[in-house]
Structure formats: structure tokens, C-alpha cells
Amino acid sequence: MTTWKEFAEAAPRIAAIFTRRHAAAGKLCMLATLRSDGFPRISPMEPRIFEDQLWLIGMPDTTKFRDLARDPRFCLHTATVDTQVKDGDAKLWGVVRDVRDPALHQRFAEDLFQDIGLDLRGQEFDQFYAADITSASAVEVDGGHMDVTIWKPGASERVGRKH
Known about the structure:
With 163 residues, this protein is α+β, with helices and mostly antiparallel strands. The chain is built from 4 helices and 9 strands; from the N terminus they run ααββββαββαβββ. It is globular, with a radius of gyration of 16 Å. Residues 27-113 form the Pyridoxamine 5'-phosphate oxidase N-terminal domain.
């Protein structure tokens, strides 16, 4: 599986677009999971990059986390409100794994507190999902064309231009 650090090194263009859009949207993304009946579910979430890993964490016992516990596949999409997509757009696909490491959870909680003031220090996390990235894509619109960048593990980014 591919960590955030490995992904960013292998797909720097997509990683840069994702990081820029993630920051511009107040760290908000849209998470796609699979419901128990097989239909897709879209949920807002604020993924975090911490210690070279992308983490999908949030309020415990929500439907999106029950979905991931049952089926670890996901798609994460940068929140886009600009119909012209001037700042680009990115999607990451992957699978999650629940990481049971109390020391890591506490380092994460301290970082979260220092970053946004949310104090979860000393608490235990029911779900703590590391996101392993299995593929990614991004679009950038520039004038009269759109560049679509695609990446899969073991390959370089591939850019296609559409006019």
C-alpha cells in the first residue's frame, strides 16, 4: 500500500493540487464510501496529513466510519465550488486500515490541538484510519484546455490534455 509520503514523491503534481485545494477549502473534502446495500455514500470530512500519512478520522460511530469498517475502499475528493475549476481538482482512491497505537493517537491529538485548538488529548480513538492510496487523478483548467493527470502505484504520473 502507498502512504501519503510515497504518493507525494511518486505523484507530485496530483499531491500538490490535492494539498492546495484541501487548504483552500478549509481542509474540507468529500469522502465516498460504500453503504451496506452497495450504494455509494458521500460525506464531508476533514482528512489530515500527519507523520507522512493521510488519516481519515472524525466523529466516532458515524455512518461513514461504519461503512469503512465493513468495506475499507474509499474515494476522497477535494471540495470544489468553482465551476471553472481554476484552482484544480483532485481525487484519491484507496483503502483504509484501522491503526491501534495509543502513542500515535496521542501525538496526533497534540498536533490537532496545536493546529486548530480541538482538544482530544488523553482520549482513546475508536476508529483511526490510515489511508493507503491505490490511485489518484487531478484536473487543471488553463485557458482553452484541461490537463488530466492520472497516477497508479508503480507508474509515473500521466498527463492527458483535452481541448
